[in-house]
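queue> pop job 88
queue> type: inverse folding (structure -> sequence)
queue> payload:
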């Protein structure tokens, strides 16, 4: 199994984002030297009660520190964005990284974001149409198409990506219909960070059945905090991770999960089987369970709004020193 770092560029209001950026660069340099495989960053707009750096310029800055690691958008909210801009940014980042870019895309779920960008009803249709345009442009086609916010007449992409035929496309998905959509439209499903283990196993069966074959890669995003003992890891993570998931509930994230799951749970029930929290031995057992499901790349988010850098770095140090060598 390969490991990646998800850079959590999301902070409480009032914090200095420039100082947090320096911390992200420290994390990236550390995981680069420790043998991690990838670095990812996500996207939200109007992220109250937090502030958040935008992923494309952030990834361009991080790429200067990544060495040979993959660099990925995990994810871009495609219905909100112009497909030409997405394709050209993806191609540019693929050039910048020497063909090591991953384009992660997703439907999104927040009403504030949809309203801010004027996304009409029928977001799934908008998403499918824009993804088709992005894919065709990245693959070098001459595209004639029109839709929400764009009209193209024999348009072609310049520059072209380094990757052939294009960077891989990973699709985020929460509900069952979205998982099936990822199987049809993307190279693979980028498994969400907050599904319980049994729920992931159930949805993977849907994904594989819809796809009809095993994907070359099966990446998963997961929350992680490692400490010398299980009790200490939970104590460190709980104030920040619980607050993060309270915001998820307020944003509507729980409402797009399948009816068999919910984030509206008390902490003890929420974190069990959902997050990687514990000593190195405990986390190794949790990683083994994910490997059994077929996960090939585990992208770990080790910091949440307000968590001190020292705690995030300790998790990375224990991962590098005691988990990765045995995973």
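queue> result:
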């Amino acid at each position: 199994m390969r490991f990646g770092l998800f850079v959590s560029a999301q902070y409480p209001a009032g914090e200095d984002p420039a100082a947090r950026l320096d911390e992200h660069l420290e994390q990236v340099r550390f995981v680069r030297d420790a043998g991690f495989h990838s670095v990812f960053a996500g996207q939200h707009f109007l992220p109250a009660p937090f502030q958040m750096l935008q992923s494309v310029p952030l990834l361009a800055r991080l790429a200067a520190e990544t060495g040979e690691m993959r660099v990925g958008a995990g994810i871009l909210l495609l219905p909100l964005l112009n497909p030409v801009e997405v394709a050209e940014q993806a191609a540019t980042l693929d050039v910048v990284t020497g063909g090591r870019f991953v384009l992660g895309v997703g439907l999104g779920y927040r009403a504030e974001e949809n309203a801010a960008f004027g996304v009409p009803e029928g977001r799934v249709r908008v998403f499918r149409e824009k993804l088709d345009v992005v894919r065709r442009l990245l693959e070098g086609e001459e595209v004639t198409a029109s839709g929400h916010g764009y009209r193209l007449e024999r348009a072609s992409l310049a520059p072209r990506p380094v990757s052939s035929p294009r960077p891989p496309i990973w699709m985020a998905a929460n509900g069952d219909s979205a998982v099936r959509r990822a199987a049809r439209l993307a190279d693979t499903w980028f498994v969400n960070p907050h599904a319980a283990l049994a729920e992931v196993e159930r949805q993977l069966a849907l994904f594989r059945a819809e796809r009809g074959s095993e994907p070359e890669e099966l990446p998963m995003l997961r929350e992680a905090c490692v400490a010398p003992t299980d009790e200490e890891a939970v104590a460190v993570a709980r104030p920040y991770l619980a607050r993060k998931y309270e915001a998820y509930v307020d944003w509507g994230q729980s409402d797009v999960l399948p009816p068999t799951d919910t984030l509206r749970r008390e902490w003890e029930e929420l974190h069990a089987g959902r997050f990687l929290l514990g000593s190195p031995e405990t986390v190794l057992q949790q990683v083994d369970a994910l490997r059994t499901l077929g996960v090939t790349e585990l992208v770990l988010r080790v910091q949440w709004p307000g968590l001190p850098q020292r705690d995030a770095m300790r998790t990375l140090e224990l991962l590098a020193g005691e988990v990765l060598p045995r995973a």
